[in-house]
Each structure stands twice: as structure tokens, then as C-alpha cells.
Amino acid sequence: MAQTRESILDAAEALVAEGGYANAGMPAVAGRANISTGLIYRYFESKSDLFDEVFRRAAQREIDACAAAADVDLPPRDRVQRVAETFARRALKGRQLAYALLAEPVDATIDAERLHFRIPYRDIFAAIIRDGIKRGEIAEQDADLVATAIVGGIAETLVGPLSRPPEPERESALIQGVARFCVHALGPVAADAASAHGFQEKRDE
Amino acid sequence: MAQTRESILDAAEALVAEGGYANAGMPAVAGRANISTGLIYRYFESKSDLFDEVFRRAAQREIDACAAAADVDLPPRDRVQRVAETFARRALKGRQLAYALLAEPVDATIDAERLHFRIPYRDIFAAIIRDGIKRGEIAEQDADLVATAIVGGIAETLVGPLSRPPEPERESALIQGVARFCVHALGPVAADAASAHGFQEKRDE
DNA sequence: GCAAGTATTGAAACAGTATTCATTACTTGA
DNA sequence: TCAAGTAATGAATACTGTTTCAATACTTGC
Hints:
- The structure is a homodimer.
- The first copy, chain A, is 75% helix and 0% strand.
- Chain A is mainly alpha-helical.
- Chain A has 2 domains: 1-44, Homeodomain-like (Arc Repressor Mutant, subunit A), CATH 1.10.10.60; 49-197, Tetracycline Repressor, domain 2, CATH 1.10.357.10.
- The structure holds a DNA duplex.
């Protein structure tokens, strides 16, 4: 029954969202789903098989939300800002799950899944950057590299706060700061506007 | 004998540098150091105790090198660039060890050590940024946040290349790209020079 | 050369989980 | 109601390394 399969996935995700991956052993998943341990193995080859899917589903929701934030008719810098804010805001809402997706130590196999998870983020930013370069609003540069660095920067900035107890009063400043960082990382506007007026970029090319 | 202790640390680090943490079981460490497995436990409480120290020592060398790169009488943006280049260049040289320090999945206890490892890097960048703000060469902003994001950006950018076979011909572009990203992340020069001439920053404060 | 103390050995014990599988309980079509 | 087939159980097992410890070999002071 496909319903049982879903309930296993839901149970596993709920456990991760509550206490992290460390909290999600197979007996615990089974208990949460009101089934026996052994039954899980009729639906999933192995534990990493199961959690690969758990992480992929959770990641996909995040990525969809960011893709939606990117899908607006605004200048590239605004779109980068929107995506960064969406990423950060949602992570701070789903703290434990976000932490598990971003940083919690897990098995090597699942860690591979986590690396995949960052690629769609990178691609969202990279697409915006390429568009910005085409329009002349962002200087020529390696879009993939900068997009990767932006994703890393956001993640690193969030890991600290996510690993500590929530501090709601600081969240808004954090989100703004992260977004600001991302826009800055795009570099100054194309050469005509900035470099002629004192923006120091002599070492960049 | 303190010499035995050293040889254990050296053996453990050598194994990590050759095949990653996964390659460094206690019997392997003992074999490499030409002692018995049990003896390690007269010098170290536990495996994570041992590897905490291995990682700390290795990290300290990297941090010292970056601190030295930061310790020059140059404008803040140049200093950021130097540190970033040093970080990236050294990581690409000591690939396997750098990967273990930056990203390889390890035990939860050792992972904590890895988080500590990034703090000194953050502090190096944060100090430069504060100095730059004081001098008016960098716009007012949360120095710790930006420094954290920069470290995350560098790390994320390196993880991919470090996890794949070396491609020496691309390394120089990678190092330059990373450094460029870091300088950009500092934002435009203070308001008087840039914002009056078209650099878009309206959403930043 | 002999104790007393210290370093070293390595095989065996242990721990924590994932995984299996013989058994039992359902479900369904005739 | 009864088979035949499928879902489900959960205690036993397998596995993967770390950690222990009784036994042994050194070292050093007397």
C-alpha cells in the first residue's frame, strides 16, 4: 500500500524535524509510523535509501520556494535578494530540518545527497547572474563560481544561528544581512557606471 | 614517552591526508605508527579525543598561514584578497586533508571541532573588515556576518574541486575567482564614492 | 642482577544499529 | 468458509569498528 510508504516517509521526516538525524533510527521511524521495524524494508532497500528520499523531498520544497521567488520580472539584483531572503527566512522557520539539510553530520551516503541538494540553489543564482550579465547589470564573471560561493555564504551564515536556540528578535537583521551580502557578492554594476567613478576594482581581471 | 604521542598524531594525520577520515581507523593508526592498537589509549582518551587534536593541529597551521597573509600594511581590500588566495591555494595543495577539514563527513564530536576551526578564519576577515570600516574604505555593516559568509563562500567553492580529481590548469582561475568574490562581498566603497554614481544599494539599510 | 615500576601487546569483549527471516495475521476471490 | 497470496511482526542476527585488560616485555634504580 502506497499509503504506508508515505507514512514511513512522513514519520522519518517528522523525527528529523524534531530531533535531527541522530534522533531518527529505524525503530524510531517504525514506532512513529505505527508499524514494525521490519516492514520498512518492504518499502525501502536500506536506511540510506529511505533518508535519501526524505532529504530529497524536503530539499525539493525549499528549492521550489526559492525558484518561485526568483521567478519575477525584476532586475537581477532584486531577484537575488528575494531568493536569499526566501532561503534564509524558510530555514529559520524550519530550524531543525534546515539544520539537518545544511549541516548536521550524517552517514556518508546521505551526505552525498546533501551535496546534490545545493546544486539547484546554485543553479537558481547562476541563472539570475547570467541574465544580469547579458543585460549589462552585472559585470562579466564566472556565474557558477559566484553562485556556489553565495550558496555557501548563506549556508554558513545560517548554520550558527540554527545550531543554537532561536532568537526571534535577531532573525530579521540576519535575513537582511544575508541578502545584502548576496547582492554585494555580485560585484559592482557594469564597468561604465562604477569603475569610472572610483570603485576600486583594479585587481579583478 | 612524548615521542610516541607525536608519532600517533603524525600517523593519524598522514592517514587522513592520504585517504580521508574514513581511512583512519584505530588499527590503521596503530599500524602506521608501528605500535599496538591498545597503546593509543594510554595517550588518548578516545578516538575523537585523538582526532580532535589531529584536526586542531592541522587547522592551526592553515590559520597561521592566513593570519600571516593578513598581517601586511596594505588597504583592507588587498588584505582580504591575500587571505582568500592563501586559503584557497593551500587547500588545493593539501587536497585530501583540506577536504577532511572542510567537508568530509565525520563523527558528530569531531564535527564540532570542525566548526571551531572556521571561527579563527572568520575572525581574521572580521578584523580586516572592521579596520576597513574605521578607515572609511568599507561601508558600515555587520563585520562578523560578512566574514562568516565569506568563509562559507570560500569553503563551498573549494569543496567541489577538492572532492574531484585535481585539475591543475583550472586552479589559478579558481583562486582568482574566489578572491574576487571575497572582495566584492565587502560591498562598494563607502557611500560618498559609489552610491552617488549609480551603484544600486537602495535596499540595503 | 634483581625488583619495582612502566610501556606495550593484541585478542577478545562490547556497543549500537541496521538488517533479516521464520512466523503470524490479515485480505480477497471463488 | 476456505485457500492462496500478501502484509506485517519483532526478536534474533550481523556488522563495523572502538575499547578494554590480563598478560608480557621492557627499563631503571639499587
